[in-house]
Amino acid sequence: MSLPFRYEKLGYAALNVSDLDRSIRFYQELMGLDLVSREEGVAYLRCSRDHHNLVLYAAKTPGIKRAAYKMASKADLDLAFEHYKTSGLEPRWLAADACRALKQGPTFRVREPSSGLLLEFYDRMTHLALPYEHTVTKIARIGHIVIATKNYAAAIERLTSVFNFALSDFVEDKFSWMRCYPNPLHHSLAVGYSERNHLHHINFMVTDVDDIGKALNRMRKAGVEVVFGPGRHLPSTSIFLYFLDPDGMTMEFSFGMEEIPEQGGRLPRMLEMHPNTMDIWGSMPAERFGRGGEIEVVDHE
User: Fold this and answer.
1) Which domain holds residue 46?
2) Same structural domain for residues 180 and 53?
């Protein structure tokens, strides 16, 4: 049974990077995001009319700083805050100046204890006057965030029963794909089992299958390590390509994704742990796939 509050979408990912200038160039020139603004130690990039879909922070240790989700309304935002508060998770509202810096309305954050992932929730963000212009890649949206945790079972239980993520598919004791209910995209968050807590990858969905092929050749020419694909995932049906950013964090471009409607949608499937589950075309991931990047456990805002 779903909880009373509703999501709209994954809004943005915030990443810690070791060299801000280098990362800005990578995400602009090779991935095709648009740099909106840069301040001391932080850069805001977008792939939509939203002020930002990716925020980069200069830091010593690369990894994910937080995952931010847009709620369906202010009422849903308030309902979610009270729900997390009564669940003992200690959510906290951001100060007004912090919200203004993010170009967002009221915003709160709460940490999922088992994985350590900091989740942010807001109901509105500045809508930019000029549209996002495609350059090297026709990005449609930020698609999903994937983490790995040693406390896999506890994290999945809490994310589905407390955070209102709907399970779409899973490999028993190994991996779960979840959508931010009632958003129909197969997953906006996924969690895998690992011996340590870490970032697995960040996904951006593209508008044309040619974007996958062009990105493959562009990354290879630039000396970027391609770590998986191109291929097609069995769970979501997406055609994918994974590659590493300058800090060794895994990024993904994907084309196409199953959508599961709010009414009459299918039940989650228990999938076999098999190479074809990850790629029905038969490619195999490289050793560095999904391994780079920590989950920041102390939020410095």
Assistant:
1) 7-122
2) no
